[in-house]
Every structure is written in structure tokens, then in C-alpha cells.
């Protein structure tokens, strides 16, 4: 993106380091506050991601930017995959995710891994399906991250991305801007330990190339059969793409 959005304006470190710090800071409150901010809809949208993944009957699944593990746990419960990898750059988020995985008695199928989405330590053509929910906009180099995903996917494997987008129709467009630019940052300042985190999340969502623009980036790095599905009038979008 032309104007890179970072969590901390006066910090000279790179976006990747700042994002890691931010998610470590908010890991303890993330699940609860996220449910409030999304009005609980994020869980339904993740269910829709799982449904798309399940259709391809994958044996090995990787969930990148897994956070506290909500999506990778859902996929373990609703698919027959024998191996699932939840990968994240934030150790704080992963520690909470590991507890949730253990509570669901899924340690034998889910491995929670500290890792960088732009430098995946996995072999070429080794993963059947990869998901990313609300994570691609935090990539420091978007095309590099997507190229790494393409590399490790098996031929015919699928990528399913859930990401925020901006509604285009009245009154949802106007309501979205009010909610994301005023209400979300205010909630973050009131209830988050990191007072800038939710302001960053709103700004990064607004500037992320969504819809056809993101479809074109997926095609540019080499994905085929690219499609997208609006969620709640475009407040979020699910993207599906295949490795040819």
C-alpha cells in the first residue's frame, strides 16, 4: 500500500515489529473486545470460512495469523483434517490459543506455532488449505506473504481469507464509517490496555485494498479461480483462491 499504516506513529521500528508488540499487548482482552466490536458477527463469518474449507476435504490445514485460535479450533471440529497448524507472530496471542486448544482436547491435531507469515518454515506443496482471518492487512509485505502462502500450498489447494472491507451502499457505508472511525477507537481507548491498537485496526481496515482490488493482487501473485463473498453488506469479505 502506498501509505503504510502502523500501530505506533512515533515508533521507528518496522510494521512487523509494531504489530507483534500490539497483539502481545492486547492478547488478554482481544477475544472479549472483538466480540463486542463485531457485534458477535465475526463468529458467523468464521463459520462461513470453515464451510468453504470443508468443501475441499483437506487433510492438512494451516491458519495464518491464528491469534487466539478461534478459527483453527472451528476447523478441527468441523473438518476431518488430521493435522492443523495455527501460526502467529505474537507469542501472547498463541499462549491463550494453546490454552483454548487444550480445553477442547485438540492437542493431538492442532499445533500452535510461533512464526512469520512472510517467511514460512514449511516445504513447497505441503499444505492442502490455508486460511487467514483478519490478518492479511497486517502483513508488512502483502505480496510476499501471499506468495509464501502460494508456495506452500499443494497444487489444487485453496486459500480462504476473511478480512474487513468497506460497504459501498447507503446507509451501510455511512454507518460503517461512523462505527469504525468513532465507536471502535473509543471502545479501544476505554477498555484496552493499548490505547492506540483499535485506532490502528480501524485505519488499516479502511485503507486495505478490498473487493476487486484484492482479487487482482491474488491473481498477480499467481492464484487462480479467485472469488469473493460479501459479509453483512460488505463490512467484511471472504476471498477464496486456488493454486493451479
Automatic annotation (TrEMBL):
<keyword id="KW-0474">Menaquinone biosynthesis</keyword>
<dbReference type="InterPro" id="IPR029063">
    <property type="entry name" value="SAM-dependent_MTases_sf"/>
</dbReference>
<feature type="binding site">
    <location>
        <position position="133"/>
    </location>
    <ligand>
        <name>S-adenosyl-L-methionine</name>
    </ligand>
</feature>
<feature type="binding site">
    <location>
        <begin position="116"/>
        <end position="117"/>
    </location>
    <ligand>
        <name>S-adenosyl-L-methionine</name>
    </ligand>
</feature>
<dbReference type="GO" id="GO:0009234">
    <property type="term" value="P:menaquinone biosynthetic process"/>
</dbReference>
<feature type="binding site">
    <location>
        <position position="68"/>
    </location>
    <ligand>
        <name>S-adenosyl-L-methionine</name>
    </ligand>
</feature>
<comment type="pathway">
    <text>Quinol/quinone metabolism; menaquinone biosynthesis; menaquinol from 1,4-dihydroxy-2-naphthoate: step 2/2.</text>
</comment>
<keyword id="KW-0808">Transferase</keyword>
<keyword id="KW-0489">Methyltransferase</keyword>
<dbReference type="GO" id="GO:0043770">
    <property type="term" value="F:demethylmenaquinone methyltransferase activity"/>
</dbReference>
<dbReference type="GO" id="GO:0032259">
    <property type="term" value="P:methylation"/>
</dbReference>
<dbReference type="Pfam" id="PF01209">
    <property type="entry name" value="Ubie_methyltran"/>
</dbReference>
<dbReference type="InterPro" id="IPR004033">
    <property type="entry name" value="UbiE/COQ5_MeTrFase"/>
</dbReference>
<feature type="binding site">
    <location>
        <position position="88"/>
    </location>
    <ligand>
        <name>S-adenosyl-L-methionine</name>
    </ligand>
</feature>
<comment type="function">
    <text>Methyltransferase required for the conversion of demethylmenaquinol (DMKH2) to menaquinol (MKH2).</text>
</comment>
<dbReference type="InterPro" id="IPR023576">
    <property type="entry name" value="UbiE/COQ5_MeTrFase_CS"/>
</dbReference>
<protein>
    <recommendedName>
        <fullName>Demethylmenaquinone methyltransferase</fullName>
        <ecNumber>2.1.1.163</ecNumber>
    </recommendedName>
</protein>
<comment type="similarity">
    <text>Belongs to the class I-like SAM-binding methyltransferase superfamily. MenG/UbiE family.</text>
</comment>
<keyword id="KW-0949">S-adenosyl-L-methionine</keyword>
Amino acid at each position: 500500500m502506498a501509505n503504510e499504516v502502523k500501530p505506533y506513529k512515533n515508533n521507528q521500528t518496522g510494521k512487523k515489529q509494531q504489530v507483534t508488540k500490539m497483539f502481545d499487548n492486547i492478547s488478554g482482552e482481544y477475544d472479549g473486545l472483538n466480540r463486542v466490536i463485531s457485534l458477535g458477527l465475526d463468529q458467523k463469518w468464521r463459520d462461513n470460512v470453515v464451510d468453504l474449507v470443508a468443501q475441499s476435504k483437506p487433510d492438512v490445514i494451516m491458519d495464518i495469523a491464528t491469534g487466539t485460535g478461534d478459527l483453527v479450533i472451528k476447523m478441527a471440529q468441523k473438518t476431518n483434517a488430521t493435522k492443523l497448524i495455527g501460526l502467529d507472530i505474537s507469542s501472547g496471542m498463541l499462549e491463550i490459543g494453546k490454552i483454548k486448544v487444550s480445553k477442547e482436547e485438540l492437542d493431538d491435531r492442532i499445533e500452535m506455532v510461533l512464526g512469520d507469515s512472510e517467511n514460512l518454515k514449511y516445504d513447497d506443496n505441503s499444505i492442502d488449505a490455508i486460511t487467514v482471518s483478519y490478518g492479511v492487512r497486517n502483513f508488512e509485505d502483502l505480496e510476499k506473504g501471499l506468495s509464501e502462502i502460494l508456495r506452500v500450498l499443494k497444487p489444487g489447494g485453496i486459500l480462504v481469507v476473511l478480512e474487513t472491507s468497506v460497504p459501498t451502499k447507503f446507509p451501510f457505508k455511512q454507518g460503517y464509517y461512523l462505527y469504525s472511525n468513532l465507536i471502535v477507537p473509543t471502545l479501544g481507548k476505554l477498555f484496552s490496555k493499548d490505547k492506540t491498537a483499535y485506532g490502528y485496526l480501524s485505519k488499516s481496515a479502511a485503507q486495505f485494498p478490498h473487493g476487486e482490488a484484492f482479487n487482482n493482487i491474488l491473481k498477480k501473485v499467481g492464484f487462480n479461480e479467485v472469488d469473493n463473498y460479501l459479509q453483512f453488506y460488505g463490512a467484511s469479505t471472504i476471498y477464496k483462491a486456488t493454486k493451479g
